[in-house]
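cron nightly-structures :: item 1 of 1
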Amino acid sequence: MKIRSLILSFIVVSVLAFAATSLSSCQTQGENDDSTYVDPCGGKAPGGFKTALISTDQDIAMGLNSVEQIEADPTTYPILDSATNSAAYGHIYRIRNNILNSGKVYFKNVFPWRIRIIKDDKTLNAFCTPGGYIYVYTGIIKYLDNETQLAGVMGHEIAHADRRHGANQMITQYGASALISILTSGTSTQLAGLAANLLLLKYGRADETEADDYSVRYLLGTEYDAQGAKYFFQKISSAGGQQVPEFLSTHPNPDNRVLNIQETWKCLGSGGNTGTFDQRYAQFKALLPQ
């Protein structure tokens, strides 16, 4: 009986160890451990049960699938060439680097965080695919008043990828097994359908609130005012909703988001800098095509 008990114990321990190893290998670690992201204001490591079912490599694969569809359609997405517009890209990459170097972006060294500027002055929009491919429209760049506001918006979009919101939604829609199958051996039709669904993705209230919260966290410790996103939402509210960006059209009320950002900032200690960098931002905007 003792021998049998020992064998059974060994089997149980082995199964549990295998499960733990499989789970940890399925989700690539970021640069910080989980304890870094536990704070009294609700901060925690990204993931959860759903996203543990697929790897961050598969997040990147989903993002690249969307990138392929976006950049094959220059009529809908007229992207500014990064070589001929290197000075403008230098400005927006500097803003991105400030955010990434805050030490709070969990997958800083895992996702590529590549940026493309879409030449469309009529569209107030920005988005980030799973895996960290960022698109910012000239419309929103020109609409904003200073660099801190754009940093707040970019921090919000980076948070969607860093918190793996898109991956969560795609797992809900497809199921983990089917999603992995499409990413690894799907037909061109299946991949196109996945890309289309990602581009039509609408985040829910919880994801939007979390992205706002993490925009504050990311900007703390940078040269920017950590409430950068708040000023953007205030600008939208003061305009009377006449120019509501696409990515706000189904989201929580801008005034409520302002209050939430303020509460998160206060909870985190009301710290950070107050720089807005108006002149530097004006130089950036002047580099964009008219």
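cron nightly-structures :: done
Residues 1-29, 31-36 have pLDDT under 50 and may be disordered.
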